[in-house]
Automatic annotation (TrEMBL):
Family, per entry: Belongs to the class-I pyridoxal-phosphate-dependent aminotransferase family.
GO function term, MF aspect, one: transaminase activity
Pfam families per record: Aminotran_1_2
PANTHER family: AMINOTRANSFERASE (PTHR46383:SF4), ASPARTATE AMINOTRANSFERASE (PTHR46383)
E.C. no: 2.6.1.-
Domain Aminotransferase class I/classII large stretches: 32-383
Top-rank lineage group of the source organism: Bacteria
InterPro entries xrefs: Aminotransferase_I/II_large (IPR004839), AspAT/PAT-like (IPR050596), NHTrfase_class1_PyrdxlP-BS (IPR004838), PyrdxlP-dep_Trfase (IPR015424), PyrdxlP-dep_Trfase_major (IPR015421), PyrdxlP-dep_Trfase_small (IPR015422)
Keyword entries, A-Z: Aminotransferase, Pyridoxal phosphate, Transferase
Record-given protein name: Aminotransferase
Organism from which the protein derives: Lactiplantibacillus dongliensis
Cofactor list: pyridoxal 5'-phosphate
Amino acid sequence: MTLFRDDLNTTIAQIQVSTIRQFDEEVSAIPDMVKLTLGEPDFNTPQHVKDAAKKAIDENYSHYTGMAGLLDLRQAAADFQAKKYGNHYDAEDQVLVTVGATEAIATALTTICNPDDAIIVPSPIFPAYIPIIQEAHAKPLFMDTGVNDFIITPQMIDDFIAAHPDEHFKGIILNYPNNPTGVTYVEAEVKALAECCQRHNLWVVSDEIYSELTYGSTHVSIANYIPDETILINGLSKSHAMTGWRIGFLFASKEMTAQMKKVHQYYVTAATTVAQKAGVEALRNGIDDALPMRNEYQKRRDFVYKVMNGLGFKIARPTGAFYIFAKIPANFQQDSMAFCKDLAKKNHLAIIPGTGFGEQGEGYVRLSYAASMEKLQKAMDRLTAYIENPANQTA
């Protein structure tokens, strides 16, 4: 028998599996569990996109594409960005097709990070960015956004950098609409952030994967203002309910794209060809496929927000994505992991502990309302029963 060797990359050895995934797997073993844990659309991929994939299989699109992806798909992605958000990219040398937004994040951060560079990580935040920064031997430094209802301001960035005078700040992560909080930014806020980041000479890794899911306002990309300093990430997972197809995009300057292409090449060679052909169809003939999903998500958001607000959860009203990030009522234990485990055990409802999104998430919980109204009604009934039971309260 071969014994496990402990002489591995020490950075990898210290990285933990996502709390989100760990918790989801743990509670899945409980019978009759209602899960609002993972951030995945409950809608199916549109039929015309599936038909395009079937056609691609029949036409033997089973070989490698170029490293950057099909030019047709890169052009469709560039056109989509231009029409929807006013961003203009040359499909030839400013767009990369990636294996989902996750690979896009890894490629972007690996490209910009040198050892000991500091990256501003607004927190609470989707955890995937953190180990990628660490793998590049850079430093994720966490800026607490809870002090301002999870909205980043230029003053917060100025103060954070001033408080760390010995650090070499290379960049900042922006994710909006945000996971886990659901907050997003209006035009004036985005412009002010752009000016601040440019003043501090920061690369902006802007993850805008939820850009099609905004409520009450149109998404504004920071790339409109500082295109040369922005590495823009997007994809088809949320806009077209294509999580399993793994199609993401990187948009950047010609010079930055050329560097990222080298990292991307050695990570994955190229994204799956059939999925790329489906992506062309999604962006060309399904440019507004997200609209009916968005309308339904908004109804669900309003329902869940109203119920949880009435139960005493403090919530910064989400204006995008499909998450509620809620402060646990003061008369319950504030250890979010203990709270969520107790809720799952007693009332068979699974939501994610706030600590899954960094230390700044302690005392909060996240739930995904990417679920049917029937499922959400059942979930809110179970949450209500738990909250209204005096035995579960600590004070």
